Amino acid sequence: MDFDKKKHLLEEWISLYRDKFRIEFAAEGQKINKQKIQELINRHCSNYRVSIESIYLLCMFSDNETIPVYIGKSVNPYTRWKSHIGKLLEGKGSYLRWKYLLIHDDDIAKHTLILLIIPDHEIVTPPIPNFPKTVGSVEYQLVSLVSDAYPDTLLNKEGNRR
Predict the structure, then answer these.
(1) How far apart are CA 131 and CA 23, in angstroms?
(2) Mean pLDDT of successive 10-residue segments in the chain (162 residues)?
(3) Which of 97, 123, 137, 161 is close enough to 144 for a disulfide, judged by CB 3.0 to 4.6 Å?
């Protein structure tokens, strides 16, 4: 599958969920507000039972492109992202790369950032046709597509397909 096809599959899949499951993480040039983001995530996740597994994507967003930079899954995305946000702002260890890509030293967003948190039961189709649509499979497919389509921006620790 060629580069353009992978980008198309990715954008097509994200467009199914971008509006309904979007959390405004930070606008370009805006200071990242940890408390505000945590409240938005908590409010978003309160619509779903805690035991439901969800997939999440942190994306750099512009009018013409949504680029996932981190993809994961969790049965409690609020707790998971509470940890990610704190570590991102600290910028230590593996989060140093996150901070370098996403924010300036003064915690100002380099890009408009959105977070998509999509519960398992809302996933209607897999990113790659004819693949399973379970959260684990979708996570794997998205990491694979993003690692090929945007290899320089994927922040998943493995940095490649799982």
Answers:
(1) 27
(2) 89 96 96 96 83 92 90 93 94 92 94 96 96 96 93 73 38
(3) 161
Listed by start position, the domains of the chain span: 3-149
Pairwise CA distance, residues 26 & 97, whole Å: 18
Locate 26 and state its tokens: 């930070």
- What's the gap between Cα 63 and its chain centre? 17
Pair type for strands 22-26 and 65-74: unpaired
The pLDDT value given to residue 105:
86
CA dihedral 85, 87, 93, 95 (to 10 degrees): 10
Amino acid letter at 36? K
User: For 18-73, where are the alpha helices, taking DSSP H only?
Assistant: 34-45
pTM for the model:
0.92
Q: What is the pLDDT of residue 58?
A: 97
Say whether 115 sits in a helix, a strand or coil: strand
Specify the pLDDT at position 157: 58
Cα–Cα distance between 85 and 121 in angstroms, integer? 26
The residues near 20 (Cβ < 8 Å, ≥ 6 apart) are 122
CA end-to-end span of the chain? 18
Question: Which residues sit opposite 113 in a β-bridge?
Answer: 26, 60
